[in-house]
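User: I'm writing a tutorial on reading structure tokens. Could you give me a worked example: one chain, its sequence, then its tokens, then a sentence or two explaining what the tokens reveal?
Assistant: Sure. Here is the example chain.
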Amino acid sequence: MVKNRKNNVHYVDNALFLEKITEYREKVLAAKAEPDYDRSKKPRVPNYLGECFLKIANHLAYKSNFINYTYREEMILDGIENCITYIDNFDPAKSKNPFAYFTQITYYAFLRRIAKEKKQQAAKYRYIRNLDVHDLITQDHDGGDYGNEFIDYLKKTIDLVEDFDKPAEVSNIPKRRPKYLDKQKTIDSGLDLE
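And here are its predicted structure tokens:
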């Protein structure tokens, strides 16, 4: 009995993707060969390639590394932008796997966006730390001072960011030299300690 296996259909067909990218590259090289070449006359990226970039970025954004970020859409947009920016760098003579090439471009675009957002978040926390948030949020009611749980949350978060930003302490403990180096030194100098 032969089992009816389901065809393993991927969201981007690598062979067709390679074919379309090769066609686009030939158009770009032909346009660059013209004597009156202008970057504004560069051929337009075909819709199929744009769809592939969108699919790659969307599917990569659902990977466990990136799923929980609130700025996931910005990551996807950065990935697509970088793919379109570096489309001319893909050389079909060197590689027959454009899917892997553009997935890596998208992956690193995601990492750059995360780094940018973390810098922005650290700047916000430093700004909040310098403000007198406690006086802004606490309430004077009936002569009593009532705090807010949000203040405690902000203080804990800011403390965590400050601890993360501190450089690691360098140990002053000297590293031990291997014994074989000491033995080699005594042999070279003619002394025998054994």
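What the tokens reveal: The first strand starts at residue 139 and ends at 141. The beta strands are 139-141, 144-146.
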